[in-house]
Amino acid sequence: MIHKPLRSIAAMCGGALTRKQAEEVMIQGVSTDSRKINKGCLYVPLAGERFDGHDYADQALASGAGAILWQEDHGTPPEGPVILVQDTLVALQSLASSYLKESEAKVVGITGSNGKTTVKDMVTALLETKFKVHKTQGNFNNQIGLPLTVLDMPEDTEIVVLEMGMSGRHEIELLSSIAQPDTAIITNIGESHLLQLGSREEIARAKVEIISGMKPGGLLIYHGDEPLIPMVLAEPETKKPDSFNTFTFGTEQDNDDYPTGIMFHGRGIIFTSHRHSGEGFSLPLLGRHNVINALAALAAAEHYGVSDEQIREGFSGLRLTSMRIECIETEHGVTVLNDAYNASPVSVKAALDVLADMKGYRRRIAVLGDMLELGDNEQEYHAEIGRYLSPDMVDMVYTYGPLSVHTAEAASPHLPEGQVIAFSDKQALIDALVQEVSNKDIVLVKASRGMKLEEVVDALKSLHNGTAL
Description:
alpha/beta
């Protein structure tokens, strides 16, 4: 993490020290939470709609903060080492950008509608076989989280892998300007954030913003099956570095890399690709879509000189962020595919494809909750999922939420009677599901995070001898 004297911190964030005698105070790390103060850290108070971190500056100093940032329009700062700045959030971002520029670390930026966290974890696993790597933890992928991730980076980091999220235009542009990636990955363009952006074209423009801060000569790795990305790249309004290279991955054979063979085994996949046609790579993951994610990670690893042998080592030790198709075996013999972290039409179809590929189970059951933030066509997107369902994919479907009613209505005509049930009450769904499932069933749980369907997963995990504890 950042470890510098206060005079350097002030210069890096564009602020002014209130006490000259504090210039040599050493700062170790940064916190925006007054409840999580490590001795000697810099406390950065941020102001939101319902809170103002400046109110807790005295508490932060008393807890051991080495110094604080203070926004000039917030009155008289407290006694102690203080750096005055015009805007504490902008100062935090400037500090992170300066810290990155002073380091020798290469930057890999990752965005996309779906799969960016999985690809982040994959890229990290592969690069770690050769380099000292630091990556985004959890969901620290926004205008606050990304700077904090950077400032937590050890000084000897060789590559930092940064996930970049957004809800509207110009947010990724800001993150790209802070990170200035050497390599950028766009996993795909989906329907998430249609509510805010209105069209897939605008979503594509928002994602392509990742190259706006890219260093000249950088590499853009993107999903070549998506025509909107090259369309946006060709638009004169798109901000691009002076020169950059591209690499495409996907299912189509006109991409730079694509799968040439996929074989399922137990709880994973073995695959070969166009650029790696020899011995296959083994993924400890479910789903054909994860082979496509792996191709993006392969491209990044190959760009940084990671060998095929090291790539196999990295994939074998891969650990993903929780609630992304976790395969859970319950004591009751029910297998749960927990994918309750987020949902969009693309990711729901991918999860259903995983369920369809799971052979050897007594029944395949899908529990589907609402997909949120899909805009004016949200009902049609849910109905589209219902039409996608088929008897050879799933034996029973439980839906939850007012939008998922449209999924149930669209699925019912082509699934056997009584095998599609819509619920408006989550506990009623849980009660019915717990009574229904039995040994050797497999249950997929998929919904947007706001539906909190991890409660369904918890109920299934507590099953014992046919009864939820």
